[in-house]
């Protein structure tokens, strides 16, 4: 089955570019995600870190 798919895909012109495009999208996404986290403000991290505790307090007050 896999051999059939491989032989079929090799007959398509320009198919070699798709793995490169997907690798490029994958790399850009994770590099941008890393940079976003690396340059995140510390004050924002403190607020986000306390969100689960704040939600729990709101539920207990009801």
Features:
62 residues; mainly alpha; 81% helix
Write the layout of secondary structure elements.
Elements: H1 2-10, H2 17-38, H3 42-49, H4 51-61
- Largest β sheet strand count, sense and barrel closure: none
Which overall shape is indicated by the principal axes computed on the Cα atoms?
elongated
Strand content: under 5%
What structural class do the secondary elements suggest?
mainly alpha
Q: How many beta-strand runs?
A: 0
Unreliable stretches, pLDDT < 50, 5 or more residues?
A: none
Radius of gyration, in Å, reads 23 Å
**H/E series:** HHHH
Distance between the termini: 59 Å
Give an account of the 3D structure.
Helices cover 81% and strands 0% of the residues. It has one domain (2-61). The longest helix is centred in the middle third of the chain and has 22 residues, at 17-38. By secondary structure, the chain is mainly alpha-helical. The chain has helices spanning 2-10, 17-38, 42-49, 51-61. It contains 4 helices and no strands.
């Amino acid at each position: 089955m896999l051999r059939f798919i491989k032989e079929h895909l090799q007959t398509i012109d320009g198919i070699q570019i798709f793995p490169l495009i997907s690798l490029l999208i994958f790399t850009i996404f994770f590099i941008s995600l890393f940079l976003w986290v690396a340059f995140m403000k510390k004050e924002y991290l403190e607020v986000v870190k306390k969100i689960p505790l704040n939600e729990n307090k709101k539920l207990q007050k009801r």
